[in-house]
Amino acid sequence: MKIHYTQYRLLPWLLLLPQLFIIAVFFYWPAIQSLYQSFQMQDIFGSVSYWVGFDNFKQLFDDPTYWDSVYTTVYFSFWVTLLGLGLSLFLAFFMQRVIKGVVFYRTFLILPYAVSPIVVGVLWMFMFSPSFGIITYALELIGIDWNHKMNSDQAMWLVIFAAIWKQISYNFLFFYAGLQAIPKSLIEAAAIDGAGPWRRFFTIQFPLLWPTTFFLCVINIVYVFFDTFAIIDSLTQGGPGKATSTLVYRIYFDGFKAMDYGSSAAQSVVLMCFVLLLTVIQFRYMDKKGGY
């Protein structure tokens, strides 16, 4: 019996329905709700609201502390992405040269990814505590006075290194898999021609890793913008002052502590648009040099 394909036209949609429902409930509906609230002003209890149009956005862009948060976020994302990708690529490159204990080293490098961001923040908080931190004590032995609760530069670099440590496993896995996928014949041919390990890496391996590097660059920027909130909240709470208050942490602070729901919603919309624009620009212009 011949079965026509039109009898199963609804089957793909039925199979996609559970996932579409989850996306609609947990992504599209909150996004629409934030967009709607960004044009409103509410009291601290959220019971009374009135339409204010673009006033929330105007006040936001006129606030110099908001631009300070923008600068903090850009600075934070730049160093986390640059140092995180560089260190991960360095580890993946030398992991290929390991002969004994490969399983142990790979497991050790992948382990941080299994730790949740809030746990990462708590661990680093205890290690770098000004009063009883073990690393703080070691730094004092070599003459370095560490107190990230009073020093804004120390606080910023503390959250940078904690965020890098959390994400390094993810980056390492992709770089290691990308290096393994490069044909060995290319490396052997370059070695026969007299190219050393570093020259082989920069002229053959790294250019072929460009698609992987580009992908990880986008992922790391999005990670810094959203997934580092728990690390910052448990480590510095945005302080000292506002030194580590990124855009996502400021959204939380204004919405849940300052009870300024309209401004918090407006910041959410701006952040969402900024990340979408950044992703579109990267995929449209930077991806021209890479092939998938």
TrEMBL record:
Keywords in alphabetical order: Cell inner membrane, Cell membrane, Membrane, Transmembrane, Transmembrane helix, Transport
Membrane topology note: Multi-pass membrane protein
Domain ABC transmembrane type-1 span(s) in chain numbering: 70-282
Pfam families, per the entry: BPD_transp_1 (PF00528)
SUPFAM superfamilies tied to this protein: MetI-like (SSF161098)
Major location category of this protein: membrane
Record-linked InterPro entries: MetI-like, MetI-like_sf, UgpAE/MalFG_permease
GO cellular component, one term: plasma membrane
Family membership noted in the UniProt record: Belongs to the binding-protein-dependent transport system permease family. UgpAE subfamily.
Subunit relationships: The complex is composed of two ATP-binding proteins (UgpC), two transmembrane proteins (UgpA and UgpE) and a solute-binding protein (UgpB).
Protein name (Swiss-Prot/TrEMBL): sn-glycerol-3-phosphate transport system permease protein UgpA
Species of provenance: Conservatibacter flavescens
